[in-house]
Amino acid sequence: MNNVESYMKLPYNYIINEINDESGKYFYARVLELDGCQSTGETFEEAYDSLKDAMKGWIETKLENGYSIPLPVGSEKFSGKFIIRIPKSLHYRLSIEAEQEGVSLNQYALYKLSK
């Protein structure tokens, strides 16, 4: 793959969030796989359209400068399992909390991670 159009056809993950802060209400959009590829808009649609333009420019610039372009991350690459090491004190605390809730430690950890 060596042209902008071919990358634009790939199923990249677009993330668009509504923001309400001191500057007002707007939509912030970014492409998960393309670090720094982002845009904003007053509406969801405007943010999406603006992001597509930003994405074209981002990819074009990277290609012109000889950088590789990350491919989209697909859910088929993930098993749903990962191993994490945590301090003994945290393991103990989470085990106690899971027991108090009447669920397994795995279920409780999933609950905590999804918040």
Report what the structure shows.
By secondary structure, the protein is α+β, with helices and mostly antiparallel strands. The protein has 2 domains: 4-64, Double Stranded RNA Binding Domain (2-Layer Sandwich), CATH 3.30.160.250; 79-114, no CATH class. It has helices spanning 4-8, 44-64, 88-101, 105-114; strands at residues 14-21, 24-31, 38-41. A 3-stranded antiparallel sheet has the order 1-2-3, covered by helices on one side. Helix 3 (88-101) packs across helix 4 (105-114). The radius of gyration is 20 Å and the shape is elongated. The two termini are 38 Å apart.
Question: Characteristics of this structure?
Answer:
2 domains; 3 strands; elongated; alpha+beta; Double Stranded RNA Binding Domain; three-stranded antiparallel β-sheet; 115 residues; 43% helix
